[in-house]
Amino acid sequence: GLLTRLQTSAPTVQTPSSSKSFSQNIPGCLWKLGRLNHVAIAVPDLEKAQSLYKDVLGAQVSETVALPEHGVYTVFVELGNTKLELLHPLGEKSPIASFLQKNKTGGMHHICIEVDDIKAAMTELKEKKIRILSEEPKIGAHGKPVIFLHPKDCHGVLVELEQA
């Protein structure tokens, strides 16, 4: 009857396990992408943002650290599996100041992913026409070398790579 016809005419669905692995088409790299280190959020009021995460949500929140080389104040919010980095402008030429001029209430600024060899990553990404926003790595908030990849080359996301 009708039930038999419906069962036999059901379309087949290809599941990810039966399709080709994505990694089969990716050539071997000299470096390896690691875990998500943090998501950075630009905030117009750092004290208010710290209070939200610490007093309202109960998170462990670091002290404020000034990073003059990057033009920012940073605060890290521990989440167990990753962190949030709260960014606030330090000085007139801060990239966060210009971000907040366009986004008055703040918002996601960048994501940070760890790599096992930042120099090898830089070399290979340049070969693949991914723009890096500095000639050499700078020391980031964790005291480790970091680089930023141009958001237009990363689907609209500013990506920070940090040496693991």
Structural overview:
The chain has four helices and nine strands, in the order H-E-H-E-E-E-E-H-E-H-E-E-E. It has 164 residues and is α+β, with helices and mostly antiparallel strands. The protein is globular, with a radius of gyration of 21 Å. A hairpin with a 5-residue loop joins strand 7 (138-139) and strand 8.
Summarize the structure.
Strands 1, 2, 3, 4, 5, 6, 7, 8 and 9 form a 9-stranded mixed sheet that branches. The protein has helices at 2-8, 46-56, 95-102, 118-127, and strands at residues 33-42, 60-61, 65-67, 72-78, 83-89, 107-115, 138-139, 145-149, 159-163.
Question: Main attributes?
Answer:
4 helices; EC 5.1.99.1; 9 strands; VOC_core; 2,3-Dihydroxybiphenyl 1,2-Dioxygenase, domain 1; 22% helix; disordered N terminus; nine-stranded mixed beta sheet; 164 residues; Methylmalonyl-CoA epimerase, mitochondrial; alpha+beta
The name of the CATH architecture is Roll
Helix content: 10-25%
- Any idea of the CATH class? Alpha Beta
CATH topology: 2,3-Dihydroxybiphenyl 1,2-Dioxygenase, domain 1
Radius of gyration: 21 Å
Low-confidence stretches: 2-13, 17-24
What is the β-strand count?
9
**Whole-number count of domains:** 1
Number of helices in the DSSP assignment: 4
- Helix/strand/pairing category: alpha+beta
CATH superfamily: 2,3-Dihydroxybiphenyl 1,2-Dioxygenase, domain 1
Biggest sheet architecture = 9 strands, mixed
N to C succession of SSEs: HEHEEEEHEHEEE
> Based on CA inertia axes, which overall geometry fits?
globular
Mean pLDDT: 88
Percent strand: 25-35%
Q: Give the terminus-to-terminus CA distance.
A: 62 Å
